[in-house]
Each structure stands twice: as structure tokens, then as C-alpha cells.
């Protein structure tokens, strides 16, 4: 009997304790996710007028607080499928159908940006007439517009927002919008000695007094390569592989023995699909390749958007779209204006 009672108490204890432990673990993961991605959610709010609280709550739900396979291995936090015209990496998972194609991103921030663009489709136009801090209206509107099939989707978003007080980030985003600025992400440069202020050309730091390095306006890290250095030397000094320098900087055919002919900027992260400005206005002698290097935008993306060759001479004054693919008449899509674009 004592044994039976002890076993009964243990089972009863586990019945109540295990859900609490699981909830605590889940809450900790959610808090960690919020801390990691709150700044990006605010940036998306300032640029695209989508409540940061909604973006964060959707990210938590759809990425499993960043623990899902798709978010961990593919940097895809919102389950964004390939769709027609996607030229980036691909991975395949069973979803509504077997073996569906999902986007693979070099940088998870690009999945945040694509999520914002996804919500700017005509299907969700009714959301943008709501107050930007009306998270309940946005949550219910997403469900009404057919974003998710779950009947409790809106309730789940609202519960997450209120549990973690995510609406405070909406307040912060509104303040940025009123000031007319854009929050800058945290700088991830190790052993930083001297830091410049953010400018139109990004942030520049000097590490150990040796060489200039920094972060582009659209948040891609770079180092200054010096004339006479080989890619192998640079890669070893910065704990990179030669193939990374070659890929990130469109150095087709280069190898470890390739020597820099002059001082130049080399990116140590993948360039992004979007620049910090809507357009780059061509100056004398510029090509898509030099613009890609200057703006930290993938060369292939610029080629696709303009139908120009990477080394083709461009006329002075020609406008290269950096952030959005232009329409047939050369203007930007309507949703570009929501973030201040023209």
C-alpha cells in the first residue's frame, strides 16, 4: 500500500509538473527569440508599416521560436515557399502537399523582409487601413484574409503578444516613424577598438589599428583588402574560407593564390537581395558589378532586375533598382511607398 500510494503521488506530481516544465522551457525559448529578433521586427515596422508585435508573434509561432528545422537550416522563419520567380536557394518539405519547395536564405533577416512583402499583396490590403498599433485588429484580419487555416490563429497571436507585452515594440516603432529614422541593428564585430558613427555609407570600424572594416548600410560586414594580399591570407586572418570570399564578392575563378591588385572592400557575409535605398543612380564608368560591390546587393539580383550584363557599360543617370523589382513602366510597386520609397 505505501508503495502504491507513493507511485500514485509520483504520477500525480508528474501529471502536474511536466506541463509546467514544458511551458517554462517554451516560454524561455520565446523570450530568447524575442530578444534576438525584436530589433528586426521594429525595422520592418518602420519600413513596411506592419506592427512589430504581429511580426514577432508570427515568427514565434511559425519558426517554433527559431527551433524549427526550416528556420535553423534555411533561415526561413515564416515558412515562405518558393513561388514563381524565386531565384535563391531551395529546400523541400512535406506541407499541404508532399515535397513542397521552400526558400533558403543566407540571412534570416531576408526572410523577415520577404514576410513583410508577402503581406503587401492585394489580399491583405485591408490590414493597412488599421491603426499600426491595433494588434488585435491585425491578428483577426490575418485570419479573416486567409493567412492561416487554423481557427485559433488570431487567438494564438493575441495571446503571445499579451503574454510577452510585445505591443511595447509597436510603441517603439511608432517613435522611430515619428522621428523619421530607422533603428540600426546591433554591430557584430568582435574585438572592436574604434567605431565611427552611422552615416550614409554605413559604419566603419578599425580592428587592432590594422585595417578598416565595417558594416554596409544594408547590414553586410566588410573588411578592407590590401594590395598584394592573397585571398588565402585574408581568409586565414579572418577565420573564413577562400570559397566564402570568392562567393560573397563574385570573384569567379579566383582561388587562394589570387592576389589583390589594389586596396578594395571585400564582404565577409553574403550580400543581400535589397539595398538600403530604392535606387542607385549610375555615375560615369559604373557597371552592375561595381554597383553590387558598392551597395552590397547580390549581382545576380541586379542583373535579373535590369536585364543588363554584369560588366555592361551603363548610361549616366540610369536608375538601378536596389530594393524592389520595378514594374514594366519602370516605376516601383505600390507597396514601396508604404516604407517611404518612390
What does this structure look like?
The strands form three sheets. The chain has a five-stranded antiparallel sheet with strand order 3-4-5-6-7, with no helix packed on it. The radius of gyration is 23 Å and the shape is globular. The chain contains eleven helices and nine strands. Helix content is 42%, strand content 11%. It has two domains: 163 residues, Lysozyme (Orthogonal Bundle), CATH 1.10.530; 146 residues, Roll (Membrane-bound Lytic Murein Transglycosylase D, Chain A), CATH 3.10.350. Helix 1 packs across helix 2, helix 2 crosses helix 6 and helix 5 runs antiparallel to helix 6. The longest helix is centred in the N-terminal third of the chain and has 47 residues. The protein has 342 residues and is of the alpha+beta class.
Features:
2 domains, Membrane-bound Lytic Murein Transglycosylase D, Chain A, 342 residues, disordered N terminus, two-stranded antiparallel ribbon, alpha+beta, 42% helix, 5-stranded antiparallel β-sheet, Lysozyme, 9 strands, 11 helices
Amino acid at each position: 500500500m505505501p508503495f502504491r500510494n507513493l507511485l500514485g503521488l509520483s504520477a500525480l506530481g508528474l501529471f502536474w509538473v511536466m506541463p509546467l516544465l514544458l511551458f517554462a522551457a517554451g516560454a524561455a525559448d520565446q523570450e530568447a527569440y524575442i530578444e534576438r529578433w525584436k530589433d528586426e521586427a521594429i525595422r520592418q515596422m518602420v519600413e513596411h508599416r506592419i506592427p512589430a508585435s504581429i511580426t514577432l508573434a508570427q515568427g514565434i509561432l511559425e519558426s517554433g521560436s527559431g527551433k524549427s528545422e526550416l528556420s535553423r537550416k534555411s533561415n526561413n522563419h515564416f515558412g515562405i515557399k518558393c513561388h514563381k520567380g524565386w531565384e535563391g536557394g531551395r529546400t523541400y518539405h512535406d506541407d499541404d502537399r508532399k515535397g513542397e519547395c521552400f526558400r533558403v536564405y543566407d540571412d534570416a533577416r531576408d526572410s523577415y523582409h520577404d514576410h513583410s512583402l508577402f503581406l503587401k499583396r492585394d489580399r491583405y490590403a485591408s490590414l493597412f487601413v488599421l491603426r499600426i498599433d491595433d494588434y488585435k485588429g491585425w491578428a483577426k484580419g490575418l485570419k479573416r484574409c486567409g493567412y492561416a487555416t487554423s481557427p485559433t490563429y488570431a487567438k494564438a497571436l493575441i495571446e503571445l503578444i499579451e503574454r510577452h507585452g510585445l505591443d511595447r515594440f509597436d510603441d517603439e516603432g511608432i517613435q522611430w516613424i515619428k522621428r523619421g529614422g530607422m533603428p540600426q541593428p546591433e554591430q557584430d564585430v568582435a574585438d572592436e577598438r574604434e567605431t565611427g558613427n552611422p552615416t550614409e555609407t554605413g559604419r566603419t570600424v578599425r580592428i587592432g589599428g590594422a585595417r578598416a572594416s565595417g558594416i554596409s548600410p544594408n547590414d553586410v560586414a566588410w573588411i578592407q583588402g590590401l594590395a598584394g594580399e592573397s585571398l588565402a591570407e585574408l581568409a586565414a586572418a579572418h577565420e573564413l574560407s577562400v570559397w566564402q570570399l570568392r562567393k560573397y564578392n563574385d570573384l569567379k575563378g579566383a582561388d587562394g593564390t589570387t592576389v589583390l591588385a589594389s586596396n578594395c572592400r571585400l564582404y565577409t557575409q553574403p550580400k543581400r537581395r535589397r539595398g538600403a535605398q530604392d535606387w542607385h543612380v549610375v555615375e560615369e564608368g559604373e557597371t552592375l558589378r561595381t554597383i553590387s560591390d558598392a551597395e552590397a546587393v547580390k549581382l545576380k539580383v541586379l542583373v535579373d532586375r535590369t536585364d543588363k550584363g554584369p560588366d555592361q557599360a551603363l548610361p549616366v543617370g540610369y536608375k538601378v533598382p536596389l530594393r524592389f523589382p520595378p514594374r514594366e513602366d519602370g516605376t516601383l510597386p505600390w507597396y514601396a511607398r508604404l516604407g517611404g520609397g518612390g
